[in-house]
Write a structure and sequence with these properties.
Helices cover about 45% and strands about 15% of the residues. The protein has about 150 residues and is α+β, with helices and mostly antiparallel strands.
Length: about 150
């Protein structure tokens, strides 16, 4: 998990600890859950729910480009770029970018947790399909890019 330079040091170290503990125990300890709640606030619980529901999919193309698709709790699909901390959800635009209330939205946190725990689905697509996924946010809700 290469997050250097994109996350505050405390968050990065906590995610490294999540990875280590999950590899050893196949679960997260109560202390880690409390630390996640402390560092990420209410987004932590919501992100863990997304992880439990297996709502995160890593989409990769032959060129090596990738993005994450996260099905939100409302069923809406959001696209995340973890390398630059971007999510297409309204909460990211409002809470992270405008108000600077949060480090990241629950969707990006779910992506980082899935990376640390190794539990995301994977989908291989063509470069054209990947481009269509990125452009999908401009289409009707529920429309799948082809």
């Amino acid at each position: 998990m290469s997050t250097s330079g994109t996350l505050p040091v405390v968050a990065e170290e906590l995610l490294k600890k999540v990875k280590q503990v999950y590899q050893e125990l196949s679960q997260l300890t109560d202390d880690l859950l409390l630390a996640l709640k402390f560092v990420f606030g209410p987004a932590a619980l919501h992100a863990l729910e997304l992880v439990d529901c297996r709502s995160v999919t890593l989409i990769q193309s032959p060129s090596g480009r990738s993005l994450y698709q996260v099905e939100g709790s409302s069923g809406q699909i959001y696209y995340c770029l973890s390398f630059c901390l971007y999510c297409s959800c309204p909460a990211f635009m409002y809470s992270v970018l405008r108000r600077n209330d949060n480090i990241m939205c629950k969707h990006i946190l779910a992506v980082y947790l899935c990376q640390a725990m190794g539990v995301s689905h994977q989908l291989k697509v063509s470069d054209k399909q990947l481009t269509n996924f990125l452009l999908a946010k401009d289409k009707e809700p529920g429309a799948s890019p082809h």
